Every structure is written in structure tokens, then in C-alpha cells.
Amino acid sequence: MNGNAILDASKKIKEQLAKILSLKFDLNVIHEVDFGEEKVFAKANPKRSLSFGKAVEMWVKLNRGEELTARGYYTPRDKGLTTPAYSFGAQVAEVDVDPDTGVVTVEKITTAHDCGTVINPLGVEGQLEGAIQMGLGYTLCEQFVMRDGKTLNTTFLDYKVPAAEDMPQIVSAAVDTYEPEGPFGAKEVGEGLVIPTAPAISDAVFQATGYRCKDLPITPEKILRATGKI
Fold first, then answer.
1. Is it true that domain 88-226 has CATH number 3.30.365.10?
2. How many Cα atoms within 13 Å fall on the side-chain side of residue 189?
3. Least enclosed by CB within 10 Å: which of 32, 80, 99, 120?
């Protein structure tokens, strides 16, 4: 949805820059102006062109120093006013559980995500790995300790979140599809893959110990109690 709003705003910016070129060269804005290679140019005569920077500079001068801005909007009116598209993903977790201490070590997570057309591969990879980090935290260690309506672990000294050394090996894959409602065919690749991390790790712990945790986080104490060690 943000991408579609950005496209709308970008289109309005281009219209303003096209007007600058038409004023300079007396062109028809709709039919004779195009964009490419960091410049605005006339279709019939590409030599009649301005760099984006020069076009912006001229716009600012003509508008007495005002910034060149535009607001974009997007509402998925034909999709229930919620989202234009839905993404899908899956994860597999490989864990090691120490039977004496109950400590769970996540060795590897393989994740796949249908995020439509991939626009920024490195950004997609970062989002997928970040989602795993978030899911790892609330699965194994993140927990508010409350007493009489007050949070007792109010700092990161007491509230455990996964650090770099806690991260498992990650194998990620983007399932490249095309979403007609998305910007350039893309869909979300934000926090959708946080969702399957907990079920994947929980099921792996169950396969290893026979203990099915239904109250996150999965702590060593819970595992030891379930397996009769304490």
C-alpha cells in the first residue's frame, strides 16, 4: 500500500518536472515529454532535455524557493479497504535441545516468502532475516514480568532479546511472483515471516522432547518440568 502511495506521489512530481521542460522548450506536456537516464527530455528531440537536478532547480526558482513536494494516496477500494494483496510464507526450524538443561539452540531456519516481484533483493533478504530475529525473540526469551500491574523487567538488562551471537544459520528464498495490485508487481516483505517462526521452533522442540509448548516463551524450565527433570 505504501508503494502505491509513493507511485502516486512520484507521478505528481514528474508532472511538475514535465511542465518545467514544456515551459523551457514550448512543448506539449502530455504527449512530448518523457523521463530516463536521470533527465527530462522531449520525445521527438531528446537533445531538448534537462537533468532532474536542473529541472528541480528551475521549479524552485519559479515558485520562489518553495520545495518540490507531492502527496500520494492509495486505498484498496476494490479489496475491502484493507489490503490490495496478501503474501504467503513458510519456515522450517532445526533445533538442538539439551536434555539436561532444557536449553534450546536453534541451529538453522529455512524460510521462503511470496512477496510478489522482488524490487530490492538485498532489502528482501534483510527483511526476512530481521523477521526471524523478531520471531526468535518472542519464541524463546522475550517475556514481560508483571506484578501488581507494573512491569518489573523494564530495561534490556532484564528483558532478553536475541543478539547477533544468538542468530541461527538462515537460508532465505523469495518466491518471485507478480501482483497486479502492487507497485511494479510487489507485495509486502515486512514482518509477515515473524508469524511462522514460533510454530516452526515449537514443533521442532516437540519432535525432540515430546513437549508441546502453548505458552510462549519456550524456556528451559518449562521443558525440564514437562520432561520430568525437575
1. yes
2. 32
3. 80
List the domain boundaries for the chain: 2-74, 88-226
Residuewise pLDDT in 10s, the chain (230 residues): 888 999 999 999 999 999 999 888 888 765 688 999 899 999 888 899 999 999 999 999 999 999 999 999 988 877 676 788 888 999 999 999 999 999 999 999 999 999 999 999 999 999 999 999 999 999 999 999 999 999 999 999 999 999 999 999 999 999 989 999 889 999 988 788 899 999 999 999 999 999 999 999 999 999 999 999 88
CA separation for the pair 20, 187 (Å, rounded): 34
Task: Please state the pTM of the whole predicted model.
Answer: 0.79
Report the C-alpha gap between 221 and 217 in whole angstroms.
11
Residues annotated as catalytic are 191
